[in-house]
Specification:
Layout lengths: L2 H6 L20 H4 L4 E10 L2 H7 L2 E10 L5 E10 L2 E12 L5 E5 L5 E6 L6 E9 L3 E9 L6 H13 L7 E3 L6 H10 L27
Antiparallel strand pairs: 1-2, 1-8, 1-9, 2-3, 3-4, 4-5, 5-6, 6-7, 7-8
Length: 216
């Protein structure tokens, strides 16, 4: 697997979630209880130039969220379609903190990889992240319960992007031309312990040598 593909499938190493700008009200524990199920990847926006290029390789992606044993976590299964291949992993989870922030965390390192931000519709899921390299790079990823999102939903996502300093040309919408990952996700949902298709990872989030998502 080439470095570019590995980067697509790994969420970046992030600064503390509280440092994230444009803090739309964070979902609370009541909101988090409504998150289980399948979420379809709609679009991503990134300042980091390599991420913008890599997002163009993603045909479609999805997340499947399931309650974890601890009660405060939701386990995440990521599926990302690149070409005719579907890559998956389950190395991240959502954690609702005491302050009602809903964090995306790496299951192996416990490192925070992102934060959920509120959207006006319960059928939308927005993940905001911040990556430190020679400078700070910001980005966000939008998921939805179905792909029939409204013009208002798109405008809200784009307004969040603008608040982060992202330009329109830095937003990439997934084309959804194939169903390879939908088929794989359906197969996995019938098994209590679905096997990863590749050891790489998963959410359409970017960079970092590996692991983990996100990018997912």
């Amino acid at each position: 697997m080439g470095p570019a593909l590995a980067a697509i499938l790994a969420l970046a190493a992030l600064l503390p979630a509280d440092a994230l700008p444009c803090g739309a009200q964070r979902p609370d524990s009541a909101t988090a209880s409504k998150l289980p199920g399948t979420w379809l990847y709609v679009a991503g926006a990134a300042q980091f130039p390599q991420h913008q290029v890599e997002m163009l390789l993603i045909d479609h992606a999805l997340l499947r969220l399931e309650p974890g044993p601890g009660g405060q976590e939701l386990l995440i299964s990521h599926f990302v379609a690149v070409g005719d291949q579907c890559f998956t992993n389950n190395l991240t989870y959502l954690e609702v903190t005491a302050g009602n922030a809903t964090l995306v965390k790496n299951a192996m390192t416990q490192q925070t990889e992102g934060m959920l931000m509120n959207m006006s519709s319960e059928n939308l899921l927005l993940i905001q992240y911040q990556m430190q390299r020679e400078r700070t790079y910001l980005g966000q990823y939008l998921y939805a319960r179905n792909l029939s999102i409204s013009t208002a939903d798109r405008e809200e996502f784009e307004q969040h992007a603008e608040c982060l300093g992202l330009r329109a040309e830095q937003i990439v919408y997934a084309p959804w031309k194939t169903d390879v990952c939908q088929v794989k996700a359906a197969e996995g949902s019938s098994s209590p312990h679905p096997e990863p298709v590749a050891a790489a990872t998963a959410s359409p989030a970017p960079d970092t040598p590996r692991p983990g998502s996100a990018g997912n």
